[in-house]
Design goal:
This protein is α/β, with parallel strands linked by helices. The chain folds into three domains: 1-44 and 88-162 and 241-324, FAD/NAD(P)-binding domain, CATH 3.50.50.60; 62-86 and 163-240, D-Amino Acid Oxidase, subunit A, domain 2 (D-Amino Acid Oxidase, Chain A, domain 2); 326-376, no CATH class. The chain contains eleven helices and 16 strands. The strands form two sheets. Strands 1, 2, 6, 7, 8, 9, 15 and 16 form an eight-stranded mixed sheet that branches. Strands 3-5-4-11-12-13-10-14 form an eight-stranded mixed sheet.
Amino acid sequence: MLDALIVGAGPSGSYLGHLLSEKGFNVKILEEHREVGRPVECTGLVSERVFKMAHSRSKVNSVSGANVFFPNGKSIHIAKGEKTIVMDRDQFDKDVAAMAISSGSDFSIHSKAIAAKVGEDAATVTYREDGEKKEIKASMVIGADGINSVVRKDLFSTRPGRIISCYQVDSAAELEDQDSVNVYVGSDSSSGFFGWATPSGKLTRIGVGSYHSPAYRYFLKINERFGKDKIVGINGGSIPVKYLKRTYGDRALLVGDAAGIVKPLSGGGIYTGMVSSVHAAKAIESAFDAENFSAKHLSAYQKAWKHELGRELWFDGMIHRLFGGISDRKFNALYDVLATPESIDIINGTGDIDYPSRVVISLFLKRPRLVSRMLFTR
């Protein structure tokens, strides 16, 4: 019987497989697609922290700034000393999967989980490998199978509470400023989220996230700046931006997107997912040491990841809900406050892609007019 069965070979699942296999555990990873990293459903912006965890050749560019465009047609430019990496997400996923395999994880592609259950002695997952129905048992099962997680559905009977739908293309429109991401806010650009254009060398990733409204119609508006005849690839998906109340159970854990451990303000889930995998590996090791796979014992996993990320994700979620409902008039009022040299200095000094609450808190404390603009502009 396996020690751990991981469903899903995204960065969270493969990184967990790597961590467990390095410790000598017998690990198998199931990946439903024929190729790791496909389909691509990510803009590919990550901090250098991610590349300190994963050994990858996937970097295609790095940026240090952002141009934020407001409904009034004006924009602000922000920049920071630390670079944000633009990566080829397809290659990154393959590289992390290679880490898991090199550490000793068994790997099965085109193996789609269709059911999961837990008994007193084992967790059992039924899956189809190349169309053939199979069943496998393990002491632990870990759901790393994203927003449509089978493990979460069958063992946790819940679903993410807040979902952003995304539409993105690879465009041959090359951005002149290769050091900055373009961000678009307002009712023409999104419903409850934002649009973007990310420089990736000769290609530009252009997309939009939207809440409770189709993302495609907003994408069309943003893409008018770049030209529909330059699209060379289309991808998209959904992002859970509210973590689950419970990410552990008897013989089961959820990591990454399957648990909703995603940054609500940006929709980024690679860093947070890999952090959750670090804590999952520790919790699984503890369970084996104690020979105790109960939900009570595994609850230490949730306490650990929430200790590191919970406050940030909660605060980001609160700000996301606040900003997600504001009018163009309020966005333009915010521009008047944010476009000042004082505000730009605060943003540049405290901005962090993994911990965005730091800049928001600093702005609220040092620029109280921001709060009044939010609350009282109609």
